[in-house]
C-alpha cells in the first residue's frame, strides 16, 4: 500500500469509535484511530460532574448497528453511558486500532501523491488516503472570559474537568452559568453544599424530563425481544423528530405547545412570582438549547440556594463580584460556562489543496457540504461537522448518517478508480446558501446569544430541519457532486 493506512480517524469519542466499528463491519481493516487522551469516550469521559446525564432518552442514544445496550433508566447517566461505550469498543475489538496519547497537531494534503500526512505532538508522521475528523464540537472548556479568575484563592473547577471525589460538604459554592451542564449539576450538589449561589446570565426554557428507573422485567423483555426494542426506538425516533417543528421562529402548533408546556413547568414548580419572573426567558423558544429537567427549579427553592441574576463583573480572591458591587464570598467556584466550539479545526492545523488552511477557508465561519466534506480538502470527512448539531434529537443519528456517507464515498473511490474526491465549490456553496436561508426561519436565528452562532451571527453549528431531512440528503454519495482526482 502506498500509505501507512487507508484511513486515519482523529478522536476516540462515540463518533470516532462508531466510524472504526463501521469500517470493521464493512471488512475494512486498514485504519487507525488517533486519540490524544489515554482512554476512550470523548465527552462522556470528560464530563464527570455530579448529575451528568444525557438529555435524550437512552434508547435513542445509541447507534443503530451492533448490539443495543441494556439501559437502566429512561435518561442514562454519564457512568452508564461511558460503560456502554467501553462495552461497544470491546465488542468490536477497537482497542487494538487506537493509538492513545497521540495528539494530532497538523494534517496536510500532499497533492503529488494524493495523500494526507498527519503529524502528532510526538513528531511522528502517519500517511493515509482518507482523513476522518471525529474530535467533537464541545471539549475545550470555556471559563466565560471572566476577569480575575486566576486571583481566586479557593478551588476553581469546570464541569468538564471535575476532580474525582471532590467533596463539597460544608462548602460555600458558586455555580457560574445556568445552561445544560448547570441544570444537572445544581440539583446534584445543592444538598451537599453549605450554600450554593447560582449565577445566571440568561434564563433557559426548561421542559419536564420524567426520568425513571427501568424495572428488571422491563429491561429483560426488551433484551429478549429485539424487534420490540427496535420498535420502541423507532417510535421514540419519529415522535422526537416531529419536535423539529417546535424549533421554528414563527408560531406553529408544535412550537406553541412546547413553549406552553415549558411556561407551565415554570409556573407549577416556582410558586414565588418574583423568582419566577427572573427565570422567565425573554427570547424565542428554542433559540438556545431547550433544557430537560425536573429538579432544577426545585433545587433553586432550597433555603441554602440563591439565584443571582446580576451580571458577574469579575472574580476576586474571596469570590464573585457582581455588577451591583456585591462580593459573594465562596470556597469553590464551579464554572458551568460551556465550551469553546471546536468547529474551527479542533486544535489541529489542517492544510488542503495548495496548502490552504481550513482556518483560512473558514474565515467567514465554518461551512461544509452536508456537514461532512469541504471543498479544497479532498478525502476529508468530518463527523459532527458544521451545521449538523440538533436542538431536538439524538446527535448520534446525524453522526451515523455521516459515517454511512463517508463509507459509501470510500467504497466509491475504488469503483471510480479515483485517488480522491473533492466536493465541487459550487455544490458546497449552493448547499450552504440553501441551508442559511432555511436557518433564518428557525428559532436558532432568534434574538438570543448562543454557541450555535459565530460572533457575526452566522449559524454554523445547527441543522435547520429534521433528522429525516438529513438522512435523505446524505443517503447517496453522488459522485457528480465531486471532482475526481486520479493518482498522478
Ligand atoms: P452552555 O449551554 O453554553 O451554558 C453556559 C452557561 O454559562 C450559560 O448559562 C451562559 O450564559 C453562562 N456563561 C458563560 N459565560 C458567562 C459569563 N461570563 N458570565 C456569566 N455567565 C456566563 O454550556 P453547557 O451547559 O456546558 O452546555 C453546552 C452544550 O453541551 C449544550 O448545549 C449541549 O449541547 C451539551 N450538553 C449536553 C448535555 C446533555 O444532557 N446531553 C449536558 C450538558 C451539556 P448565557 O446563556 O447568557 O450565555
From TrEMBL:
SUPFAM superfamilies: FAD/NAD(P)-binding domain. It comes from the Bacteria. InterPro entries: FAD-bind_Monooxygenase_sf, FAD/NAD-bd_sf. PANTHER family: FAD_NAD(P)-BINDING DOMAIN-CONTAINING PROTEIN-RELATED (PTHR42877:SF4), L-ORNITHINE N(5)-MONOOXYGENASE-RELATED (PTHR42877). This is NAD(P)/FAD-dependent oxidoreductase. It comes from Streptomyces triculaminicus.
Amino acid at each position: 500500500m502506498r500509505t501507512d493506512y487507508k484511513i486515519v480517524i482523529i478522536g476516540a469519542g462515540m463518533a470516532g469509535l462508531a466510524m472504526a466499528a463501521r469500517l470493521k463491519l464493512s471488512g475494512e481493516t486498514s485504519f487507525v484511530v488517533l486519540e490524544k487522551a489515554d482512554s476512550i469516550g470523548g465527552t462522556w469521559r470528560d464530563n464527570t460532574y455530579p448529575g451528568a446525564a444525557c438529555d435524550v432518552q437512552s434508547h435513542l442514544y445509541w447507534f443503530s448497528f451492533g448490539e443495543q445496550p441494556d439501559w437502566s433508566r429512561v435518561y442514562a447517566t454519564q457512568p452508564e453511558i461511558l460503560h456502554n461505550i467501553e462495552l461497544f469498543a470491546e465488542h468490536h475489538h477497537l482497542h487494538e486500532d487506537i493509538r492513545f496519547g497521540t495528539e494530532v497537531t497538523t494534517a496536510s494534503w500532499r497533492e503529488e501523491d494524493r495523500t494526507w500526512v498527519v503529524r502528532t505532538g510526538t513528531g511522528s508522521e502517519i500517511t493515509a488516503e482518507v482523513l476522518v475528523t471525529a474530535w467533537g464540537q464541545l471539549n475545550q472548556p470555556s471559563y466565560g472570559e471572566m476577569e480575575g479568575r486566576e486571583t481566586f484563592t479557593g478551588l476553581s473547577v469546570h464541569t468538564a474537568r471535575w476532580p474525582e471525589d471532590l467533596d463539597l460538604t460544608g462548602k460555600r459554592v458558586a455555580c457560574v452559568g445556568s445552561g445544560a451542564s448547570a441544570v444537572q449539576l445544581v440539583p446534584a450538589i445543592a444538598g451537599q453544599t453549605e450554600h450554593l449561589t447560582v449565577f445566571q446570565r440568561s434564563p433557559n426554557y426548561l421542559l419536564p424530563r420524567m426520568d425513571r428507573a427501568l424495572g428488571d422485567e422491563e429491561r429483560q423483555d426488551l433484551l429478549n425481544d429485539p424487534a420490540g426494542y427496535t420498535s420502541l426506538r423507532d417510535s421514540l425516533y419519529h415522535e422526537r423528530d416531529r419536535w423539529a417543528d417546535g424549533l421554528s421562529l414563527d408560531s406553529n402548533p408544535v412550537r406553541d405547545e412546547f413553549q406552553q408546556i415549558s411556561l407551565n413547568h415554570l409556573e407549577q414548580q416556582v410558586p414565588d412570582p418574583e423568582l419566577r419572573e427572573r427565570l422567565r426567558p425573554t427570547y424565542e423558544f428554542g433559540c438556545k438549547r431547550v433544557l430537560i429537567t425536573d429538579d432544577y427549579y426545585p433545587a433553586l427553592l432550597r433555603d441554602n440556594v440563591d439565584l443571582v441574576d446580576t451580571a458577574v463583573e469579575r472574580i476576586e480572591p474571596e469570590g464573585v463580584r457582581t455588577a451591583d458591587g456585591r462580593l459573594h464570598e465562596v470556597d469553590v467556584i464551579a464554572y458551568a460556562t460551556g465550551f469553546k466550539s471546536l468547529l474551527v479545526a479542533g486544535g489541529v492545523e489542517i492544510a488542503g489543496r495548495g496548502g490552504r488552511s481550513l482556518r483560512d477557508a473558514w474565515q467567514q465561519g465554518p461551512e461544509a457540504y452536508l456537514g461532512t466534506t469541504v471543498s479544497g480538502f479532498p478525502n476529508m470527512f468530518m463527523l459532527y461537522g458544521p451545521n449538523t448539531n440538533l436542538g431536538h434529537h439524538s446527535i448520534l443519528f446525524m453522526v451515523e448518517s455521516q459515517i454511512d456517507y463517508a463509507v459509501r464515498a470510500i467504497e466509491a473511490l475504488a469503483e471510480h478508480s479515483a485517488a480522491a474526491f473533492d466536493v465541487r465549490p459550487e455544490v458546497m456553496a449552493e448547499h450552504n446558501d440553501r441551508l442559511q436561508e432555511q436557518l433564518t426561519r428557525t428559532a436558532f436565528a432568534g434574538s438570543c446569544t448562543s454557541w450555535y452562532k459565530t460572533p457575526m451571527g452566522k449559524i454554523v453549528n445547527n441543522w435547520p430541519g429534521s433528522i429525516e431531512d438529513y438522512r435523505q440528503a446524505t443517503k447517496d454519495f453522488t459522485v457528480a457532486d465531486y471532482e475526481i482526482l486520479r493518482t498522478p
